[in-house]
Amino acid sequence: MQHQGIFRVSGSQVEVNDIKNSFERGNDPLIDEESSRDINSVAGVLKLYFRGLENPVFPKDRFNDLISCVRMENLLSQYSDENMMDAGNLAIVFGPTLLPTPDALDQVACQAHVNEVIKTVILHHDNIFPDTKELPGPTSSRVVQF
Question: Rounded to whole angstroms, how far apart are CA atoms 126 and 16?
Fold first, then answer.
């Protein structure tokens, strides 16, 4: 976690391929805590995994909807003194809809993680998503009043 350059510095392509192939064969090449795997190679495998997903974690066709929803939630949380809906409460309300738990997992056990992800997105939406002016296509000048 404290390795400088993690996810930015490339690992050894040979080691990345070795780790990836091991996972694809059903093995866990990282199970041994004494493993001498280069952290940059391990990080490279994770980036490769996300890049290779058929459906991205945040689908492209829902991009604008997700941004609009998070901006609205952030705006609501700014008035939490009055409406009692801070980022944590909004995450509890919207988390199951924005990030549904797969049927194979225990929804109750996963909910705290879902809430934390959505809360983080609400709190840091300005850093996560570009300003509307930076997005291609038409924009709306309409302001929503709550």
Answer: 33
